Amino acid sequence: MSRDTNTSSAEVVLGFLEEAEPWRLRSPQFPSKVGGKPAWLSQRGLPSLSGLECETCRLPMVFLLQVYAPVSGQDRTFHRTLFLFCCKTPECYTHNDSRCMKVFRSQLPRKNEFYPYDPPPEDEPPSDPEHDQSVLPISGVKLCWVCGCPGNKACSRCHTVTYCGKHHQTLHWKHTHKKECCSQ
């Protein structure tokens, strides 16, 4: 990158990363984060399996990051999160072609059916052993174990782990689930 010496330049910080306790990365804490699984803001309007495919190679994209970005002074965007998904296939990335990346937006007004009106407490909430991270509360939408996106295909042996599609089921089976399946 070259810089014109006749123009003034200011440093711009777009963000920074820091370690966080696992409970702070859950949806009720409205996290911004890189990696892992998306902490969906709402159980409605989640992207479909076909909506999460790379438009170049048609393989499922992976979650890269999310940014909590509410719009001040607008009730309908009191809670607003942007989710970035990208393809894992290097050949899909070409100059001026963004078909291998997708951004999804989820937003809610301050008064909604999912979150309290007041901000979440700064202290760690009491642990709930019955809370299942693979199912969203209220709607019961099942999520893919690999990517955290909606997934209604279950492991045919144990029927407890769900996936968004065959690609993620095969990936999880080869790497860990084969050893864990039906072990407990």
From TrEMBL:
GO terms for cellular component: nucleus. This is Programmed cell death protein 2. Residues 144-181 form the MYND-type domain. It comes from the Eukaryota. GO terms for molecular function: zinc ion binding. It holds the Pfam family zf-MYND. Keywords: Metal-binding, Zinc, Zinc-finger. Signal peptide: none annotated. InterPro entries: Znf_MYND. The keyword Zinc-finger applies.
